[in-house]
Structures are given as structure tokens and as C-alpha cells.
Amino acid sequence: xxxxxxxxxxxxxxxxxxxxxxxxxxxxxxxxxxxxxxxxxxxxxxxxxxxxxxxxxxxxxxxxxxxxxxxxxxxxxxxxxxxxxxxxxxxxxxxxxxxxxxxxxxxxxxxxxxxxxxxxxxxxxxxxxxxxxxxxxxxxxxxxxxxxxxxxxxxxxxxxxxxxxxxxxxxxxxxxxxxxxxxxxxxxxxxxxxxxxxxxxxxxxxxxxxxxxxxxxxxxxxxxxxxxxxxxxxxxxxxxxxxxxxxxxxxxxxxxxxxxxxxxxxxxxxxxxxxxxxxxxxxxxxxxxxxxxxxxxxxxxxxxxxxxxxxxxxxxxxxxxxxxxxxxxxxxxxxxxxxxxxxxxxxxxxxxxxxxxxxxxxxxxxxxxxxxxxxxxxxxxxxxxxxxxxxxxxx
Length: 395
Ligand code: CMC
Known about the structure:
This protein is mainly alpha-helical. Helices cover 53% and strands 3% of the residues. The chain has two domains: 67-227 and 346-368, Citrate Synthase, domain 1 (Orthogonal Bundle); 231-340, CATH 1.10.230.10. It has a three-stranded antiparallel β-sheet.
């Protein structure tokens, strides 16, 4: 058994080579294909970011136009998906629904499910990016008992998502620039993040040669957990809980509970496996948060004030300082989404929508790598080596 490196949680194992996303955790730096996240988030829209992540280069005008039109052509889902959706309870968690819906796509696209075929990978990438907003909005509409809205291809990718979320057959949604831009930025900031748990899940799942839709469904399932994508939902619930306890005045009490290892309580939206400095996405998210609240005329959002006070206390506390725990992207994203009108239970599904492009790019990169093999970790066996089965009467 001495042949293997024992590395639970993969703290020091590089499982692949990748040229997509670079993180310098000590500096708090994030680059998509070499471009700093601060520049991508302020100078590109989400579909340009998708093009960059998938193809390695930013599109020129013509390439962008072609890409947008390609994605736009695939926004609808098969009508049968509605019937599948209707099998769920109305109060099903959207991530439970998404795991099912994304996996179900495999059953509709028999012409593009061979993961070893580059053309199939290309078309399923477009289908997934195009259909995720439709599926998330369908899951939402279903949960509130409304008819689901068909995609409107005259709108932008993100404008269309907001339309499918907030329009009804009796009332049109007029896309609002500030809110659409905020949502678009949320998408950009979540688009890829190298070998996190869900991305590694997608790679491992895809390494068996399963189809792209199945591999992405595995990523959705992994993302659901509160230590990963579920942190945005958990963070907002945490803020609301502190607010209910008495708000800012109760921060000290809450932080004391977090520091007590036996409490099992963590400061959600804080800490990261790779960032040992401020998560650059959190800075950009906080900026968007201010912009959205300013636009909506929310002078003092009690949750934002609470979050900022909590952040300040944590950043000055020896427990967090010594462990290099800083706010991550999820610390402020929930406040922005809530202000836009997104229900808390949908936050992680929106993260999944945005991360889909990263998952696909990483999956395609793996398949195209001549060194790729089925992922098959080894173990250090700690059980009984060999023993004999006794007859029932003697056990
Ligand atoms: N609150 C309190 N203590 C923490 C926290 C936290 N949020 N995060 C880490 N610690 C402590 C941890 O208990 C450990 O203490 P000690 O050394 O005394 O045992 C130390 O800090 C190191 O943490 P770790 O658990 O060994 O670090 P990890 O790399 O295994 O975990 C993490 C990273 C993100 C899972 C963890 O920080 C966490 O659970 N954070 C809260 C959930 C969260 O916000 N997740 C979103 C991550 S960013 C978005 C995404 O990519 O999904």
C-alpha cells in the first residue's frame, strides 16, 4: 500500500493539466484564459466570457455575433420536458429539479451524446449553455405555480433569463439595464473556477465516456452542497438568522459560536480552499451590490449592513486572521440576487447555470488531452484483509 500518495481532499494533488482558469490564492488573483476577472467582468458580457472560456480567445465582432445567434437558436427545450417537470412536487428544491432536468437532456439529444466526437461535444456545449436559463426559469415558475414562459430570442441571454423568470402571460417583463447587468455579472463571476469539487466531479464522471449531459448533471448535484455552491443560499439564511436574533448587536455572539468548533456553525461565505486572501470575485460582487441597491433606492439594506459589519468583525478577529479566512464570492451574491427578486432557494441553480460553461470547457479539455484516462483513485485499505465466512449458527 506504500505505492500511493495519501491525499484526502486532494490538498496537494494536481489531477489534470489545464489552460483555462488561473488562481493565485495568496494574491487573490483570478484569470480566465489569462485575462484578469476585473477586466472580464467590466468589459465583456457573459456570452463573450463563455466564448473566451470555451475557445481560449475573446471573440471579435463577427465571432460574437455568430456565437450569440448560435446560442439563441437553442434556447427552447423539448415540450416533453414540461411533463417531466410536472412529476416533481411543487415544493421540490430547485437543485433537485435541476439535477433531474439536466440529466434528462441526455434522452432528447441522441444526435450529440458521443463524448468522444468533437462535433457532438461542440453542439452539446451550445445546447447546455442555451438551455440552462430556460430550465432554471421553468423550475422557478413551476415552484410558484405559474405557467412557464417561452424564451424570447429578441432579448439578450441574460435579459431573456429575466424575462422567463419575471414575465407572465398577462404582463411583459421590460428588461432593466442595471438589473440585467448585475445578473450578467453574477454569471461572469461564476463561469469557471478551475478544479473545484463540481468541476472535478464533471471531469471524473466524463472520464468514463458517459455523455456530456450526464456529466454536467453530476456537476449540478455536487454544486448543491453548502460547502460549495449551496453556500450562497446558506449565507443568506445565516444573515437572516442573525437579523432575527437582533442583527448587528448579535454579531459578537454569533462569531463566538462560529469559533466554537463543537457548535458545528461556520461563517458561510467565508473561507476558501485556494484563496488565502480576499476573493477578487467578492470585491466585484460587493460593487454590484452597491450599484443594485443604489438603483433600487434601498438606502440601508439591513442585510447588507449586517454583512459588512460581520465581515469587519471577522477580518479583525484572530480566529479568522490566523486561518486566512476572507469573504468569498458567495458572501455578497445572495444580497444582490435577493434585491433583484430572486428567491433564496434558486441561488444555487443560478450558480449552476453560470458554471455550466466552465464545466463543459473543462470536460472538453480533458477529452481532448491525449494523456486522459478514466479517473480512478486508489485507496489505503484499512479493513480486515482476509477472513472466512462462518455458518449462520456460529456467527
Ligand atoms: N467558518 C469558520 N471556520 C472556518 C471556515 C468558516 N467559513 N472555513 C474554514 N474554517 C476553519 C476550519 O474549521 C479550519 O480550522 P482548523 O484549522 O482549526 O481546523 C480552518 O479554517 C481551515 O479550513 P478547512 O476546512 O481545512 O479548509 P478547506 O479548504 O477544507 O475548506 C471551505 C474550504 C470553503 C469548504 C470552507 O472554508 C467552508 O466551509 N466555508 C464556508 C462555506 C462556503 O462559503 N463555501 C463557498 C466556497 S466559494 C464558492 C464555491 O466555490 O463554491
